[in-house]
Amino acid sequence: MGNYAVRPALRAQLTADRIAAVGRAEFGAAARAGDAVSIEYGALESLVASSRGGQLVVDVRMNPKVPNDVAAETIRRYNRFLETLTGYTAKERSKKAQQAARKGAP
Fold first, then answer.
1. What is the pLDDT of residue 106?
2. CA-to-CA distance for 39 and 48, rounded, in angstroms?
């Protein structure tokens, strides 16, 4: 499960409806289950996304047995999905995660 920081300007827009709309745009289909959104696509066996405390919470289960081209396309779409919702690029998300890990270390 991953928690992703969201740009302050986008936090108010981080609703289940917005997550579902971006999921449909990137993956073709997204199903709402309460406050969470479920997606299945390509190498994604399961992706469940929701908003909690101004962060995007994503639980992902991947299928490692798909062809390389399917896996690559799935990862591209997943990164665009995260970038659209969080406002941060993959590089920026990585830096934020490293900073959070350093803060949590003793």
1. 55
2. 6
Please, are residues 44 and 62 in contact by the beta-carbon 8 Å criterion? yes
Each domain of the chain, given as residue ranges in start order, spans 2-98
Bridge partners, 103 (sequence order):
none
What digits encode the pLDDT tens for the residues 52-62? 988 999 999 99
CA nearest neighbour of 7 among 80, 102, 82: 82
31-58: average pLDDT? 93
Domain 2-98 has CATH 2.60.40.1840: no
- What integer pLDDT is reported at residue 101 of this predicted model? 85
Angle at 91 between CA 31 and CA 53, to 5 degrees: 50
